[in-house]
Amino acid sequence: MNIGVIIPLIIFLAIIFFIGFWSSKKLEESTGGFLQEYFLGGRELGGFVLAMTMVATYGSASSFLGGPGTAYTMGFGWVLLSMTQVVTGYFVLLILGKKFAILARKYNAITLIDFLKVRYNSTAVVLLAAASMIIFLFSAMTAQWVGGGRLIESLTGMQYTTALFIFAVSVLVYVVIGGFRAVAVTDAVQGGVMVVGTLVLLIAVIIAGGGVPNIMQDLLAENPNLVTPYGNEGNLSAAYVSSFWILVGVGVVGLPQMAVRAMSYKNTRSMHRALVIGTIVTGFIMLNMHLIGIFARPILPGVEVADTVIPLVALKVLPAWLAGIVLAAPLAAIMSTVDSLLILVSSSIVKDVYINYLNPNASEKKVKRLSFGVTTLLGSVVFLLALNPPDLLIFLNLFAFGGLEAAFIWPVVLGLYWSYGNKYGAIASMVTGIVSYIALHFYNQANGNLFGVHTVVVPVILSLIAYVICSLLIKKTKYVF
């Protein structure tokens, strides 16, 4: 067991716990109602925290382990592809912006589904949206917990079960007691760790490689395609690269865990600050991590499991104590994604299903106990599933983010800006988006990408067509905002 690596990680977790306890005190002192404070942080997020929580929630295991690992394999083409994510936070706040926050306050909406419930006045829309979020995000959450357990296992040498237990307890403690505020503030700290960690590691990798010119010469000597925009085998076409932008750029507007953050900021100034800070920080982190991935290739040739490139290169080019600090960044990325999904699924069960349909007159004391209980129960179930993930969860996780984008983007965006959008359009759009995404996934696996574009593109277009046609053809009425 590498004590030098473990000590910085323990300090990092101690800071996260402290934030959880601090947030629980704010929860007790809140006068704005338990639900609004626990699931939305009292709508008090400032610009910096808002920007960092969006960056940290979006940045996950794939941003810090999978993406750089793919850059290691495919070269600068994947680095270029990763930069399409820079505008993610910008688009979410720009498209949803003030109108979403104003309407959410007007509707007294605490969750995204609250917004959909009032906008479309449809039980079918609410139940379809809640079921989609619970099933897909639950699956995505389990996959992230597996990633967190595996990362701690690789850093410490502990058994996977022990590592997963430590990860699960760490996340549950601060999410259960602190709610959304704890999630957002820890996201801000975790985002800071990501920024510093990626910069330190990039500098160390460049020094270990003998400088950028030397690294480039090594890459050219190995395979000239590694320094082109087309991938190591020339398999990244212009159509695929540009369409990938739908998945990681515009489409992110439809992800519930991102949309709910656009409901939580304090004022317009906070949103404008978050637009600038979020875009800069996302670009900084994504560029650094993916450059580390490709620059690590001459330093660590022959890595067979690409996802292990970042931990391996950190342990090779940094002293143990500094590697521990730097490797807190991918751990922070995984934790910040997991905590956001956990509080979101919990809110879907408590607010969207229990309070909306089972017990609308539940007392605040009962809701409080239920919220703590559901969040704890969810975390415990995910822990048990992550010990040995069933095939169905792995299957569902494949469709989690692309499927949710295809399902939610038009009911949310056109629900905000198009007066003639109605519940029939929303239902048709969600069903079309999910079904066509799953069907196209299998088609593309067997036959290659349809039209040479990413899987998410066609379902997003089909769900738009379904929304517009059904809204116009079935009981067309004008909605007054």
Key terms for this structure?
single chain; 481 residues; 21 helices
Helix content estimate: over 70%
SSE class: mainly alpha
Determine the strand fraction and express it as a percent band: under 5%
Task: Give the low-pLDDT segments.
Answer: none
The total beta strand count reads 0
Distance between the termini: 60 Å
The arrangement of helices and strands along the chain is HHHHHHHHHHHHHHHHHHHHH
Mean pLDDT: 84
The general outline is: globular
Our count of helices gives 21
Radius of gyration: 22 Å
For the largest beta-sheet, the strand count, sense and barrel status come to: none
Task: Write a short abstract of this structure.
This protein is 78% helix and 0% strand. It is mainly α.
Helix and strand arrangement:
Layout: H1 3-29, H2 34-40, H3 47-58, H4 61-74, H5 76-82, H6 88-106, H7 112-120, H8 123-156, H9 160-208, H10 212-222, H11 238-248, H12 256-259, H13 268-299, H14 309-317, H15 320-326, H16 328-358, H17 364-387, H18 391-397, H19 400-417, H20 423-447, H21 457-473
Helix pairs in contact: 1-9, 1-15, 2-9, 3-9, 3-13, 3-16, 4-5, 4-13, 4-16, 5-13, 6-13, 7-8, 8-9, 8-16, 8-17, 8-18, 8-19, 8-20, 9-13, 9-16, 9-17, 14-15, 16-17, 19-20, 19-21, 20-21
